Amino acid sequence: MPPEKDNPRAWDKSHYHLACVEDAVAKAHQICSEKGVRLTPTRLRILELIWRSHKPIGAYALLDEIKLEHKSAAPPTVYRALDFLIEHGLVHRIQSLNAFVGCNDPGHVYSGIILICNDCGDVLEMDDAKISETIALYTNNLGFQLSSQSIEANGTCPGCRG
Amino acid sequence: MPPEKDNPRAWDKSHYHLACVEDAVAKAHQICSEKGVRLTPTRLRILELIWRSHKPIGAYALLDEIKLEHKSAAPPTVYRALDFLIEHGLVHRIQSLNAFVGCNDPGHVYSGIILICNDCGDVLEMDDAKISETIALYTNNLGFQLSSQSIEANGTCPGCRG
DNA sequence: TTTATCACCGTTATAATGTTACATTTTTTA
DNA sequence: TAAAAAATGTAACATTATAACGGTGATAAA
Question: CA-based, 20 to 30 A from A57: which of A84, A121, B41, B137?
Answer without folding.
Answer: B137
